[in-house]
Structure formats: structure tokens, C-alpha cells
Design a protein that fits this description.
With 210 residues, the protein is an alpha+beta fold. The chain contains 4 helices and 5 strands; from the N terminus they run αββαβαβαβ. The chain is globular, with a radius of gyration of 36 Å.
Length: 210
């Protein structure tokens, strides 16, 4: 009997020890502190740069037929058969800041010269070609080039040039004047070229030119 009395306390003590040891392997939850918001789970920072280390491109949402001020596009059929003079207005090419279609104050004198040249010969028309540097996607640069050409058309309209005499196209990044891969080259390629259009005296009958 004495032996049995000794075994019971020992068995009870052993059971308590095993239970306490088992609790150490159970997961322990984190008790939030009052007034303290726990930090969110760690996530890698988002990629803030696009191709070639450039900032992400803004979404394209631009109507190429009507610019913001509501000037409609010129009738493309009125430009058929006209002769392109790429040299007449080459000195008045304007340039843009990176990722911008805003006309800078330093370019307004060139635009005035273009408007004056068209005013001097009412039979002429104008082709404005928007261009971009090599950075960014093909789709984005095509849209940006169009915005740049339309910005020049709007500015010329404000100077008194009939916008129906001005056609715009975008070359995107396909026609660089400098094939370098640095800022000096990119500055040259972010531009609007102005092509003077003359009536073609040898155009077939029925081809509208004015």
C-alpha cells in the first residue's frame, strides 16, 4: 500500500511535466497592443521604372482627330498630289522636353516664321511631323509624336493660320536625326518638322489640292 501511495504522486507529477512540455510546441498567437496598428506583411517595393530605366509611361487617352480646344482634323483628301518641300522650313524645326508635347516659349519665334511663310503664299499647305527619341514603346511614342504635331497645329492656328491647311502625322521614334544613344541625341530627336506643301501643276485632273 505504501508503494502504491508513492506511485500515484509520481505518476501525477510526470503527467503534469509532459503536459507542460507539450505546450511549448503549440503555435503562439501575437496579441495586438491597444492603440498600435500592426505593420502589414512585407511586400517588395513596386517597380517604379520602365524599360531602359525610364519612369512608367502614362496611359494613352488621346483623340488624334480633335485636339483639346476642339479644332477638327483637316480633310486629308485636300492634300493629295501636293509636292513636299523639306528644305523651305527646315530652319524652324521645334524641339520638346522629354515626355512632353508642350510648346516652349523659346520655340514661338520659329512657329511665327512658319505661320508667316504660309500666309505669304495662300496656295501652300503644311505637313507637321511629330517625332520622339528612342526611349519608350512604339505605341506610346506614336501617340506622343501625334500630340506634338497637334500642339504645333494648335499654336499655328492661334497665330492666324487656317488649321484646315495643316496636316499632322507622327513618326514616333522611327526617324531620328541623330542615331546616338545619349541625351544630346535625344534632344535633337524630340521635335516637330515642318514640310511646306506646294500645288503640283502636273497633278491629274480631279485631284483636289486646295
Amino acid at each position: 500500500m505504501k508503494t502504491m501511495k508513492m506511485i500515484y504522486p509520481l505518476a501525477f507529477a510526470l503527467a503534469v511535466m509532459l503536459a507542460a512540455t507539450g505546450c511549448k510546441h503549440q503555435p503562439v498567437g501575437i496579441t495586438p497592443m491597444k492603440g498600435v496598428t500592426p505593420p502589414p506583411p512585407y511586400e517588395p517595393p513596386p517597380n517604379t521604372k520602365g524599360d531602359n530605366g525610364l519612369p512608367p509611361e502614362p496611359p494613352i487617352n488621346f483623340d488624334t482627330n480633335v485636339i483639346a480646344q476642339g479644332i477638327p482634323a483637316a480633310d486629308q483628301t485636300l492634300f493629295g498630289g501636293m509636292l513636299e518641300d523639306t528644305n523651305a522650313l527646315a530652319a524652324y524645326t521645334i524641339h520638346f522636353r522629354y515626355d512632353s508635347a508642350a510648346i516652349r516659349d523659346s520655340e514661338k519665334a520659329s512657329l511665327q516664321s512658319v505661320a508667316s511663310a504660309l500666309a505669304a503664299d495662300p496656295a501652300t499647305k503644311l505637313l507637321v511631323e511629330g517625332n520622339c527619341d528612342e526611349r519608350g514603346t512604339e505605341e506610346y511614342n506614336r501617340a506622343l509624336g501625334e500630340r506634338r504635331a497637334l500642339a504645333a497645329r494648335e499654336a499655328l492656328a492661334k497665330l492666324g493660320l487656317d488649321p484646315m491647311r495643316v496636316r499632322t502625322i507622327s513618326n514616333g521614334k522611327d526617324r531620328p536625326v541623330d542615331t546616338g544613344h545619349d541625351e544630346a541625341a535625344w534632344q535633337k530627336n524630340r521635335r516637330d518638322d515642318f514640310i511646306l506643301l506646294h500645288p503640283n501643276p502636273n497633278a491629274p485632273a480631279g485631284v483636289p489640292q486646295s
